[in-house]
Amino acid sequence: MEVEVVLTSHRVEFLPLLRDEALSADIIVLEEPSNENLYRFFKNEISAEEYVRGLDTSFPLYTYFLSDLLKNLYQMGKQIFQIEPYLETIQRIQRSIEDGTFSEVTKDDAIEKIRLIEKKAFGAFIEYQEAFMKGDFDILVEKTIDFSKADAERFRFRDALRFKKIVELIDEIKSKEDDPGLKLLIEAGSIHSSLPSSLEDKLETDYVRAFNLKEKAAKAIGAELINNPGTRLTEAFIKDKRISDENLRTLAARSLVYISKITPEEMLPEGENKFPHLVEELRITQEVDRMDYDACREEFQRIWRTRFKKG
Asked: How far is the C-alpha of 77 from the C-alpha of 22, rounded, in Å?
């Protein structure tokens, strides 16, 4: 079996590249919780608009165009699975709060562990937001580092759960059809970069490769892919890299300027600019990477004063 882990981001501009890889796959594993509405959409029981409206997504345009692509792939005979056990558990906890079964559900040790990880990450995020609104840059940098640590812990556990479920799926497929020519495509967010090597170590008799869509897009426009400072900060904690406190603070400071400059809304390819998000991300990353800590503080405070102190 050939296993291809496609590292991507929730941007419409990467969907043509994802399509090109998916066309040669027999089985596609999505990075999302199980949702029966996706298959109802495949069977024309609901529209794409109804499917997207039923989701809690920050990327409605991406989700809309992705669902259309997946429907075409499904109609071509591709098998499509949704595997994201961590987020499924979060949804189960949320439902238990609504239906009054929370205390019963959280008796399960695995579910309670996820709840505690989420509680820690959410608490760190709230402290980050509070510091952001106060505009004290030095405190905000510390809270950014704290949140990145909590986020990294969440990513590690989430990756471990998904890895286990993917291996179970592969074993199940092999038990039914051990075809060496079968191709399995696994969707993964670009920050989940450890998944290919984990699968390679586990699946000794299979061919495993990683394909980074952002990297391919960067090459297409003649640029070098550089992760933004926030991603590099979180990855440092995911991979337990040894980085000095000064460098951590500088990365956090750069990430604050980066998120203050980046366009939050979804953008679509237009004209010759096939990768609007990527072009902007690389430009701003290069800009902030030239800044030291003090320059970041000065730039962030300038932006903060003009954007958040109006009126």
From this structure: 12
Burial class for 178, CB neighbours closer than 10 Å (0-12, 13-18, 19+)? exposed
* Residue 309 pLDDT greater than 70, yes or no: no
Provide CB contacts within 8 A for 81, sequence distance 6+.
27, 28, 29, 30, 169
User: What are 44-58's pLDDT values in tens digits?
Assistant: 999 999 999 999 899
Rounded to 10 degrees, the C-alpha dihedral 204/25/74/9 comes to 80
Residue 212 pLDDT class (50, 70, 90 cuts) = very high
> Model confidence over 97-141: pLDDT tens digits?
989 998 898 899 999 999 999 999 999 999 999 998 888 899 999
Please give the DSSP secondary-structure letter assigned to residue 231. H
Please list, residue by residue across 242-280, b when 16 or more beta carbons sit within 10 angstroms of its beta carbon and e when fewer do. Answer: eeeeeebbbbbbbbbbbbbbeeeebbebeeeeebbbbbe
Q: Which pLDDT tens digit goes with each residue over 245-294?
A: 999 999 999 999 999 999 999 999 999 999 999 999 999 999 999 999 99
Asked whether 108 and 89 are in contact (CB, 8 A), the reply is no
Element containing residue 122 per DSSP (H, E): helix 109-134
Per-residue burial over 100-125, b = 16 or more CB atoms within 10 Å of its CB, e = otherwise: eeeeebbeeeebeebbebbebbeebe
pLDDT at 138: 95
Query: What CA–CA distance (Å, rounded) separates 85 from 166?
Result: 10
